[in-house]
Automatic annotation (TrEMBL):
The keyword Transferase applies. Signal peptide: none annotated. It catalyses: a 2'-deoxyribonucleoside 5'-diphosphate + ATP = a 2'-deoxyribonucleoside 5'-triphosphate + ADP; a ribonucleoside 5'-diphosphate + ATP = a ribonucleoside 5'-triphosphate + ADP. The lineage of its organism: Eukaryota, Viridiplantae, Streptophyta, Embryophyta, Tracheophyta. GO terms for molecular function: ATP binding; metal ion binding; nucleoside diphosphate kinase activity. It is found in: Plastid, Chloroplast thylakoid lumen. The keyword tRNA-binding does not apply. The chain holds residues 94 to 244 of 246 of the full protein. This is Nucleoside diphosphate kinase. One of its GO terms (cellular component) is chloroplast thylakoid lumen. ATP binds at K11, F59, R87, T93, R104, N114. It is an enzyme of class 2 (transferase).
Length: 151
């Protein structure tokens, strides 16, 4: 299998709404492997680093205030195609346009409270994993399911 890793975060709204287990279950049942997880309250400056590519957008300040407003569940998930397919599980950025069956489509209504983040490509996945996690926080293990998930 062509393994890759992506950064997934449940934002403060998803945590406060009690959606952690619901969201983790979707990645877990798919067959992806959890390799790192922690609950953190990021500073506003840290939120700004995470969203640095959006710094010129009018919603940037509000977005950083929001991300730093409470606990965020930061995770790294591994699997074949997990970066791209993780985005598919999450759904479109604006939940009013996300398909039913996706996380945002099923569980959120407005773009400013869309409950989850996922890296949008291999480069951002690498950068975001390095921003949120120290190397020693990333586990390396063989999932017992692997031979059944991938054959
Ligand atoms: P995504 O989270 O789907 O990768 P993005 O990277 O374009 O989307 O934007 C990051 C976050 O910024 C997004 O999850 C919610 C917020 N956001 C995006 N567009 C917005 C808008 N037009 N108004 C308010 N918030 C917005
Ligand atoms: Mg993005």
């Amino acid at each position: 299998a062509q393994m890759e890793r992506t950064f997934i975060a449940i934002k403060p709204d998803g945590v406060q709404r009690g959606l952690i287990s619901e969201i983790i279950a979707r990645f877990e049942r798919k067959g992806f492997k959890l390799v790192a997880i922690k609950l953190v309250v990021p500073s506003k400056a840290f939120a700004g680093k995470h969203y640095h590519d959006l710094k010129d957008r009018p919603f940037f300040n509000g977005l950083c205030n929001f991300l730093s407003s409470g606990p965020v569940l930061a995770m790294v998930w591994e699997g074949e195609g997990v970066i791209r397919y993780g985005r598919k599980l999450i759904g479109a950025t604006d939940p009013s346009k996300s398909e039913p069956g996706t996380i945002r489509g099923d569980l959120a209504i407005v773009v400013g409270r869309n409950i989850i983040h996922g890296s949008d490509g291999p480069e951002t996945a690498k950068d975001e994993i390095n921003l949120w996690f120290k190397p020693e926080e990333l586990t390396n293990y063989t999932s017992n399911q692997e031979k059944w998930v991938y054959g």
